[in-house]
């Protein structure tokens, strides 16, 4: 990589030539304001806030879309640039509602923060708002065109990263808005509810459907027995909302918090992940031994990926693991096994899942199998962001809470269960157990490094006592599309399948950067959260799902065996083709 010499605000720096002026300035601790730029996305230069001066030209250039060149002399801040940027902000605000107090992004809004930094205290331009209602058609997301600032981040991530094309620019000029093509609703569109649009939106134009009120109501209902579970990825992200370093493990504090909020039992979805591995690894072993022609087996923990498969690749449904996702497995166990232990009825239990994901809100009513207990197995899903808001409203000092343990009947987990939170984690956990199921021996090195990391598609060959198991891990639906086309082409041509086992996560980085996690995610954040998840794995004496004594007891006294009659009834689901567009 070539190095170039540039000047920023009269100071000389050496930087890589592949950087933009914006990126180079950030490396030198110079903050250039922007609303459209995001490190996950290509640069659109849409907002106009990042204009800078370049010596030798009278034009002002947009720093996000201009690469550095040898000898550049750049001015990023002066009185004139301040006034220009302030005017741009005032123009954006003239088309934006003054509803900060009631907006879900209040205090977490990039536009609000910049308006405060630039000292905007009055409206300099006549207010003119779009007259369009919010789209509340899905159970996961709300799209409010009145708040849209036209930055295009949501369109970019939906089309270029996720390859879903549920969102598009509609209209021109002032009438331009973001919506599904054809002026249909999100629920009628190819939207897979992954929430990456909301995670990348700088304002409150796309947010998760807030269901904190439903949880408060459930906690107040004396006829109900409220229980809760926390997903692996939430424990390395919630602390960010309270000023902790990214990736800090707050598992014990979360257990304590949830008890103080009023939940009578606190479970851990990582236990459900151990349960998932028992079923999914058993599926893999059965196919490898008895039905190799039915391979590859594709994991099914991610509801956005399930939705994508049913819409875009229904011809590959036969390759999909029928194992439910971990939180759904734990949900049905809470309303059957735990209910019996407590002398309760399924309808008495109010189950809340704390998830890093917006599509989990959709998953809980996806099929009849999500009512395997006789009632809805999961009553409410809250994102990590929603739990943070509940905590702040509760008056509980989160940082001062002592560490507590989960209720071990459905809360004791192994290291394998917690790594579900990162891309490659499901694959690694399944291989640890599948190796044991096939050989009766422990995998020599259970840290399966080839499936870790942020490479979009990770391919590896695992040797199980001479049997070569070809694996692939994809995260981000755009990368998933590549793998699925490989599988589809092999089926068409009659060639051998290129893989035996595939793990898929809809969100880049896996659940640690799910659509419901704290805002402002980039690869640095992903790496720190992932490191926290793997540290939790290393902290555990037991690191393979089949070693979990509470899982062993669950099968021994209640479920029978993996893939047995009762397990299939309670822990498995099915899939059906869904139209890309609903009418």
General description of the model:
It contains 18 helices and 17 strands. It folds into three domains: 3-77, Ubiquitin-like (UB roll); 104-208, Alpha-Beta Plaits; 213-571, Rossmann fold. It has helices at 21-27, 79-94, 110-117, 153-161, 196-200, 212-220, 251-261, 269-290, 303-312, 326-342, 360-363, 384-394, 415-418, 425-439, 477-493, 523-539, 549-559, 565-571, and strands spanning 3-8, 11-16, 51-54, 60-62, 73-75, 141-143, 168-170, 177-179, 206-208, 225-230, 265-268, 297-298, 349-355, 380-383, 457-464, 467-475, 501-505. The protein has a five-stranded mixed beta sheet, covered by helices on one side. A four-stranded parallel beta sheet has the order 11-10-13-14, with helices on both faces. The protein has a four-stranded mixed beta sheet with strand order 12-17-16-15.
- The pLDDT mean sits at 94
The CATH class of the largest domain turns out to be Alpha Beta
What gyration radius follows from the Cα positions, in whole Å? 25 Å
Count of DSSP helices? 18
Head-to-tail CA distance between termini: 52 Å
Query: Which class do the helix and strand fractions yield?
Result: alpha/beta
From the coordinates shown, what is the CATH architecture of the largest domain?
Answer: 3-Layer(aba) Sandwich
